[in-house]
């Protein structure tokens, strides 16, 4: 895939010829319309011909430009859509774009001024900061699990990426330093060199992860709530599906204990899982652990040139290119229910929009606690809230530093827990650090690097303070975190800082519209793997959820999968995909029963 340090994710065999670009941080976001246009005798593919709300304007430039004009019409009148998506996080955007390419008329409503939510970006003083994680799984050109690449390709977008040679560099108690190399054999060699007596256990544990990953990677991923697809997969790939069904209720910590005895190594596996799920290995579903522990070696971690924010920007552009809409500063305050069915949404400014289906990318807590506060909590949601609680939020520090403070060959991502394994899950216990400018220097002014630091923190810790106390506490906690990094990793760090901005759980609640600024759902106790995690349908007709409080949980690639699943289920329900009402009822009942075992 890679040539030089930059590489381009290929879009597969179909190369469309209409090109429109916008920019993030000077990098063109290349979106190629996936519709079938031809220069000269303009030829429309069936999808365009079907689309009832677009007009094409052909200009006589060297490239075609497509001008879409929304003629407000459709089934139920002016503001009537096939689907309204509340929120434009990656989960919402993937659901919206997948539906749009199937021919649905979609309206995405975003409270903030740009798309992306936790995967958004912001710019200050010449820096482009990623809001959330900079570690992108599922963003390669290989296999079936590169869901971010596939989501972009579906709307004709491709992004330049920079392969990351190291997923993460762990700095752990007992001075344990482990680099997770892109090359699997190098990672295993490094880990076994630290735990030679556990060589066999290490190989067996990670091999079991590969068994799951390979099964996952062999499937076409669509809605597990749609029986025609699900039974079809069981028929075509029975062994792989049974493998996944077998691991569905299992957790990584139990499997690790089957092979590994050394408590320090088990703690290392805890740290591996913590960065995926914000809980230890005993609480982390084995399927999720396997997904990330193998994808990082299979397709590898790749960073988008210009920053993570470009992914959401491209998807939003792709959505509009497909003839659907996205509105910003559109704060949904209520979901409108008629005769027990979700039929529309109401905004804080009083506007109302109506659709055949409503998809919420707000967390399930926000959806049912705020947007549907008049309604009784459906039984399924009660169940979800029994099994899952809101993970704490986080404190984030975005910094610009003088470049010479970093030693040569510094890795992009670091995870730091200095002395005490027991502090792994404590607030401020461990520190995540990304330095995306190691991969893409264009994100910062010349001679500067970006340090994006985050650590878990609860909103309760930041309440009841005066403005002055709040500001002082922010700076004090940030000083403490930076000095820990200075001591362990980068001497002189404190004095090299030229820009710094601190976000607290309150900041994340405000800008990400997530209850208590939560990072996502985490199990209340030991879960039965992924068994208790709800899919996309809800107890309310016409209402679906998407995002990290749906199967399979936290993670950008995980929410992309939930978007794909959601779009498939919704498409079946509105007649854009095959559907069998009889099988639907049977499967939904079975899944409900399975969840009740969790
Ligand atoms: N530091 C990090 O690495 C980090 C931090 C947080 C989250 N994440 C990851 O990001 C992913 C979250 O993705 P997601 O798709 O579930 O959602 P998201 O939280 O990223 O996006 C949801 C979007 O919905 C919008 N929204 C919410 N309520 C709304 C309302 N009432 N009206 C209009 N818009 C509304 C928000 O503004 C936001 O843009 C998770 O995978 C999580 O693991 C990463
Ligand atoms: C339906 C039934 C009952 C049976 C059918 C059996 C069957 C066919 C099952 C199929 C299951 C499937 C298809 C499951 C699919 C699961 C997937 C795709 C899971 C994906 C999980 C991805 C995860 C968990 C990704 C997480 C990534 C995260 C959270 C990354 C975070 C990174 C950070 C926080 C950054 C770390 C930063 C630093 C600096 C270290």
Structure report:
Strands 4, 5, 13, 14, 15, 16 and 24 form a seven-stranded mixed β-sheet that branches. The chain has 598 residues and is of the alpha+beta class. The structure holds nicotinamide-adenine-dinucleotide and the ligand CC(C)=CCC/C(C)=C/C=C/C(C)=C/C=C/C(C)=C/C=C/C=C(C)/C=C/C=C(C)/C=C/C=C(\C)CCC=C(C)C. The ligand CC(C)=CCC/C(C)=C/C=C/C(C)=C/C=C/C(C)=C/C=C/C=C(C)/C=C/C=C(C)/C=C/C=C(\C)CCC=C(C)C binds next to helix 7, helix 9, helix 10, strand 19 and strand 20. Its cofactor is FAD; NAD(+); NADP(+). This is prolycopene isomerase. Its EC number is 5.2.1.13. It is found in: Plastid, Chloroplast membrane.
Task: Produce the secondary structure layout.
Layout (H helix, E strand, L loop, with lengths): L6 E2 L10 E6 L2 E6 L13 H5 L29 E7 L3 H12 L4 E4 L11 E4 L2 E4 L16 H8 L2 E2 L1 E4 L2 E7 L3 E6 L2 H11 L4 H20 L8 H10 L1 H10 L4 H8 L3 H15 L8 H15 L1 E3 L4 H13 L3 E3 L4 E7 L2 E7 L4 E9 L3 H8 L7 H9 E3 L2 E10 L10 E4 L14 E4 L13 E10 L9 H22 L4 H4 E7 L1 H8 L8 E3 L19 E3 L10 H18 L7 H16 L2
Parallel strand pairs: 4-5, 4-16, 5-13, 10-19, 16-24
Antiparallel strand pairs: 1-9, 2-3, 3-8, 6-7, 9-12, 10-11, 14-15, 15-16, 17-23, 18-21, 18-22, 19-20, 20-21
Helix pairs in contact: 2-11, 2-17, 5-7, 5-8, 5-10, 6-7, 8-9, 9-10
The structure holds nicotinamide-adenine-dinucleotide and ligand LMIWWKTE.
